[in-house]
Amino acid sequence: MTPLYQWAASLAERGILPSDFQYPFLIRGFLCVLVLAPILGGLSHLVVTRRMAFFSAALGQAALTGVAIGLLFGEPLNAPYGGMFGFCLLTTLAMVYVKRHATLPPDTLIGVFHALTLGLGLCLLVALTRQFNVHQVESVLFGSLLTVTDADLLLLVGVGLLVAILLVREYNKLLLDSLSPPLASVSGADSAFLEYFFAVILTLSIVVSLKVIGALLVEALVVVPAAAARNVAGSARSYLAWSIVVAFLAGAGGLGVSTKLLVPTGGAVVLAVSGIFFITLAAGVYARRRRTI
Amino acid sequence: MTPPLIEFVDVTIARHRERLLSRVSLSVSERTIHVIVGPNGAGKTTLLTAALGLVSFEGRILAHWRRDGRIGYVPQAFAVDASLPVTVEDFLALTRQRRPVCFGVSASTRARISALLGDVGLRGLERRPLSVLSGGELRRVLLANALDPLPELLILDEPASGLDESGVGQLEALLRVTRESGSTVLMVSHDLEQVRRIADRVTVLDRVVVSDGPAAETLALDAVTALLPSGGRR
């Protein structure tokens, strides 16, 4: 990756890129945003259509607990992916299984898992303070570009490609299943498979995004881009395009703000995406009023 | 009488310890329009969902497919989120092209959808979001979706609900054409006048089979009149 950083630094020195691009960590952050925007933005429009916003929030909390478990089992502080992915996958499969087999409303069931994983995570984090300074875990909670390594970036690219390929394969079935599970089933789709499939893909994407966005804030990037896109989109195609554009603008904007003001990247990204949401909300209301005049 | 396409044999469905259907046996003949009537809560929709394999049941449902076994289905309810930016064309393309609909609808799929919408009287509505369609328009879109490609079995749950008079006429004409093309129609209806006009065979259901036979004879039975005192009109 070094030649890439050197090339970007030379462009920054010549004034072609902003001066901040002379720092490798910032280039890495920008590349992360470039990869994260299509992954999380693209997923977000299906998350919202499938009404899985609360599910995503619970997964973010589960990731925090997963970090604590990974560290307790001796994983390195800067890459506790085994604990994170293992625990998140377990939580995801349990949530989907219980949701499919219980008669309680889904949000109630997810609320139970949300509370359970948060309680467990807090207990484990307190136990961890005997081994680590708990502030070292802050980067996982709120996201930090300083802790993102080349290996993290490559993992993000790999997972991004895998998620994109899988989603392209199953997209039409997933969308039809979101609109009407009986119609999807009659057309030959396996509703149970689609539910587990999408939940696992979402888990994978959230886990690899955590070091940039943070466990407590990742939910925002898998919900708000689609919410903003709905304010202005008029078709499935523009819905996806807007979701990705919003995720990219929020990521790039948040990255810039966090670098200038030295605030956590995740927080800055969430503020940016929320700001964009309200702008699109106003734009949508204005456009509808113009159409009715 | 034509051979059966679908046979329900002693089908029983229970939920929360309550029997929704009890030992229902009936036979749906090939190339007929078979209508199920009955009061609210009679288990009509439940029987259709069992035929589609969407609910578990005791007993047997036998399908004697002669062709590809394709089923077309128009559900009773289809709730669309008011802010969902999915157009009629997007929706119909979901099962008609391999390319993800979020990457656009291909020219050939677009032409096919346009013809389909013409068949149900909705030409020109391709770019309209599903969420702004009226109840009647939405049912026509669902009917268009169910009719292409031509299914071997067409299952309709109150397809005339929300349709205006011309829409009902168009629906009935389409069902007759579908039957003449070799498909079998199994539908639920509350409108006994409509049932008299189009049904070849009628089953009266009230958690059990009350009566089953040719439309005119079955609807004339006193037991049926007593069960559906309003004449079935809503």
In percent, how helical is the residue content of chain B? 25-40%
The major pleated sheet of chain A works out as: none
SSE-based structural type of chain A: mainly alpha
Widest β-sheet, arrangement of strands of chain B: 5-6-7-3-8-9
Largest sheet descriptor of chain B = 6 strands, mixed
N→C terminal distance of chain B: 32 Å
The H-and-E topology of chain A, N to C, reads as HHHHHHHHHHHHH
What's the helix count of chain A? 13
Q: Explain this structure to me?
A:
The complex is a heterodimer of chains A (293) and B (234). The termini of chain A are far apart. Chain A contains 13 helices and no strands. The mean pLDDT of chain A is 88. In chain A, helix 4 packs antiparallel against helix 5, helix 4 runs antiparallel to helix 9 (191-213) and helix 11 (224-232) runs parallel beside helix 13 (265-292). With 293 residues, chain A is mainly α. Chain B is α/β, with parallel strands linked by helices and 234 residues long. Chain B has eight helices and nine strands. The chains are: A mainly alpha (293), B alpha/beta (234).
